[in-house]
Batch of 3 targets.
Target 1
Amino acid sequence: MSSLIRPSIKRNINRVTEKRTCLITGAGRGIGRTVAARLSAAGHRVALTARSADELTGVAGALPGPAFPLPADLTDDAAVSNVFGAVEQRWGPVEILVLAAGTASSAPLTKTTDDDWQQALAVNLTAPFRCLRRAVPAMVEGGWGRAVVIASAAAKRGDAYVSAYTASKHGVLGVVRSTAAELAGSGVTVNAVCPGFVDTAMTRASIENISATTGRTPEQARQALERRQPINRLITTEEVADAVELCLRTPAINGQGINVDGGAVQS
Ligand SMILES: NC(=O)c1ccc[n+]([C@@H]2O[C@H](COP(=O)([O-])OP(=O)(O)OC[C@H]3O[C@@H](n4cnc5c(N)ncnc54)[C@H](OP(=O)(O)O)[C@@H]3O)[C@@H](O)[C@H]2O)c1
C-alpha cells in the first residue's frame, strides 16, 4: 500500500516523527499539562504558556526534554506576540500549536453579565484566533504544521446555563473549520478536539458550583456530570491527549472537531 503513495506525500506523513517545536497554551494544569508531557516524551521541544508562573515552572521541571515556560495572559494580544517571539528566538517557528487555555463559567442567560460574556470570548475564542493567526504564516512557509484547539462538546450542542461558554466554543470550532479549509494542501492542518466533562480542575470547580447552587453533595454533583457521558464516567486528560496525537500524526484529518465524550455527541 505504501508504495502507492506519492513520494512527496510520504515525506509529509513521515515528517511528524521529526523533533518539532511545540507551543502549548493552558499548559500549567489539566489537559494542556498532559499534552505537554506527551509531546515532551516524544522528544519534541515544548514551550508552555498560561498565567500562573509557578504551575508552568512545575510542569517544565517534570518534562523529560527541552521545556520553555512563558507566563502570559493570552487575552492580551501583545503578550501573545511576545510568547511567539520568545519561542522563535530560542528554537525557531512554532510547528505544533496546541491551544488548551480556556475558562468556564455558568449562569442562566438572564444572569450572564457582559463581563462573563467578554471573558469567555476573550479566552476561548479571541485568544485561539490570535494564536492561529500568528502561527500559521511560518507553518505554511515551512510546508508543515499542526494546530489543535481543545474546544468542547459545547462546540456542537447547547446545554442550559452555559450560553457564553457555548458561544465561545461554537465560535472557535468555526475558526478551526474555516482556517483548515483555507490551508488545505499547504501541509498545515487545523483541528479541534471536543471533550465531554474531563477530570480536571475546571470540572472540579463545576462540581463545587453545582453543589453550592443546588444543595447536592459534591459526590452527587460529580455523579451528575459523570452521567453526561454515556460511559458514565469523566473523560481523562490522557484520552484527550490521544485525540490530539491523532491530529498531529494524520495529515488526512483536517478541519475536524473530534468528540472525546464517551459517545454523547454523535456528529
Ligand atoms: N475540563 C473539562 O471538562 C473540559 C471539557 C471540554 C473542554 N474543555 C476545554 O479544555 C481546555 C482545557 O481545560 P482544562 O479542563 O484543562 O482546564 P484547567 O485545568 O482549568 O486549565 C486551564 C488552563 O488555561 C489557562 N488559562 C486560563 N485563562 C488563561 C488566560 N487568560 N491566559 C493564559 N492561560 C489561561 C490556565 O492557567 P492560568 O489560570 O494560570 O492562566 C490553565 O493552565 C479549555 O479550553 C476547556 O474549555 C475542558
Target 2
Amino acid sequence: MSRIRFFGGKGGVGKTTVAAAYAAHQAGQNRVLLVSTDPAHNLSDLFRRKIGPKITAIDDRLDAIEIDAEKEAHRYIEEVKSNLKEQVRPALLEEVHRHIDMARHSPGANESALFDRITRLILEEGSGYDLLVFDTAPTGHTLRLVSLPEMMGVWVDGLIGRRKSLKDETPSWVKDPQDKPDPILEKLNQRKVRFSRVREILHDQSQTSFSFVAIPERLSVLETQRAVEDLIQNRIPIGELVINKVLKATSGEEFFRKRARAQLPYLKQLHSIKGIEKCIELPLLEFDIDDETRFRDFCRVFTDRFTE
Ligand SMILES: Nc1ncnc2c1ncn2[C@@H]1O[C@H](COP(=O)(O)OP(=O)(O)OP(=O)(O)O)[C@@H](O)[C@H]1O
Ligand SMILES: [Mg+2]
C-alpha cells in the first residue's frame, strides 16, 4: 500500500514548491507520484514541461500528474452516457442524455468527478508507488476534498435507497426491466465499497498524513489554525507544518530587520498550534524558484531542515 501525503495551505504560501521538494526528496529512496489537484496546475510551470492528466516521468523515481476537475467531470458524463446506451430504449436516449448534460452543471459535479479520479489513483493507478504526494488548491477546496468520502458515502446510500424503490415500480424507459441483476444497483454498491475503502485509507495514520504550509503573516496563521481544527474534527491524521518564507535578519538594512521582527509573533503562534507534531522553518530565499537550478537549491534547503 502506498503512503499518502497531502500539502495544503492558503494561496501563494508555497504549497506547490514544498510538495515538489518533498516529493523530490523522498524520490531518493522511493517511487513517488506527485499529484496536482489545483486547476491552476503549477507543477507544469515549476518543472517547465507539460504534465497534464497522464502520468509523466520527471526524474528516475519521480512521476507527476495534473488532474482537472472540469475535464474529469466531462469524461465521467460521457462514460455514463455510453453505459446507458445498453439500458435505455433508443427512442428515449436523447431525452435521457439531455438530463445527464444538465446534471453535469449541478453543484458538486466537478468535485465528485475529481474525487472519483483521486479514488482511482489511490486504489489502482498509484498502487505501484511507495508514496503519493498531493499538491492541493488553496485550503477551503482541500478540506472539502478530504471530507468528500463521507459526503459521497451518504449520497450513494441515498441513491441506492431510491434505486431500490424505483425498481419495484419499473420505469418505462428501461429495457428488459425484470429478470437480470440490476446493473445500476451493482455499480452503486461498487462505488460505495470504493468510497469506504478510501475513507479508511485517509483516516489511517500509518498511511496518510496532511501537512500544512504557512507563512508568518496574520491571515495565513488564522487560516492554518482553522484548517487544523477542521482536520482534527474530521479525524484526518496531521503531519508537519512547514513555515515558509521566514526572514532571519538580525543585522543589515532596517527594512529587513523590521520585517523579520514583524514575523516573530506569527512564528510563535504557528509554533503553538495544537495538533501539529512538528514545525519546519524554511527561509525566504533571495530568488524566486522558477527554474531547475533554483528548485535544486530550494530542495537542498528543504532536505537540510526536513531531516534535522
Ligand atoms: N522559500 C521561498 N523563497 C523564495 N520564494 C519562494 C519560497 N517559497 C515559494 N516561493 C515562491 O513563491 C511563489 C508561490 O509559491 P507556490 O506556487 O509554491 O505557492 P502555492 O501555495 O502553491 O500557490 P497557489 O495557492 O497559487 O497554488 C512562487 O513564485 C515560488 O517560487
Ligand atoms: Mg500551487
Target 3
Amino acid sequence: MSPDPYDPERVATLSDPASFRYCSGEELRSFLDPGPGWHVADFGSGTGLFTDELAPAAGTVYAVDVRRGLHAAYRERGMAANVVPVLADFGRLPFPDDHLDGGISVRTYHHGFDDVLEEIARVVRPGGRLVVVDWSATGAGDREGRDSHRYRDVAAVAGELLEAGFRIDDARERRETFVVVARR
Ligand SMILES: C[S@@+](CC[C@H](N)C(=O)[O-])C[C@H]1O[C@@H](n2cnc3c(N)ncnc32)[C@H](O)[C@@H]1O
C-alpha cells in the first residue's frame, strides 16, 4: 500500500470533469442501475469524480483506493455523507462475502483489476452488477496514452469476467472506451 501523496498534477487531471467526455454519470448510473439502498463500490476511486456520480443514486458508496493521498484530495473536494472511503488494495478487500450489490471499475481495468476478478466476485452478491469502463486497445487514439500497452479490448475483458463467474449483460466497444456490464 502506498501512503504517499499523489502528484498534484495527476490529482487535477483525475478531478477534471473533462473526463465525462468519455463516460458520463448518467451512463454509469444507467449501466449499474442501483437501488436507493444499495451498497456499491467504486474500485480505484481516485479523487471520486465518478464516485460522486453514484452517490445520489445508491445507499452507500465505498470509495476504494490504495492511495491515501487521493482520498485526502477527495475529502478536500467534498465527499457526500453516504460515501465511505476505504483505503485498500482492490485485490484484498475488507468486505465480507456477498457484501456488495454492485460496483464500478472506471479506468482501472488496466491497473491490475483484471488480476483480482475472483476477489471482486467474492464481495459482489449473486445477482449483483459490475460495470467496467476503460480505454480500449482498439480505441481511435484520442485519449490518455501513458499506459496504452496495457489497454484491453472488450472481448478479452468479457472473457475474463466470464471465467471469474460473471455473466455478461452488455458488452460494447465505443470510439475510445469499452463498457462491460456483468452480473454475478
Ligand atoms: C486512472 S485512475 C482512475 C480513477 C477513477 N476511477 C477515475 O476514473 O477518475 C486509477 C486509480 O486506481 C487506483 N488503483 C490502482 N491500483 C489499485 C489497487 N490495486 N487497489 C486499489 N486502487 C488501485 C489508483 O490509485 C487510481 O486512483
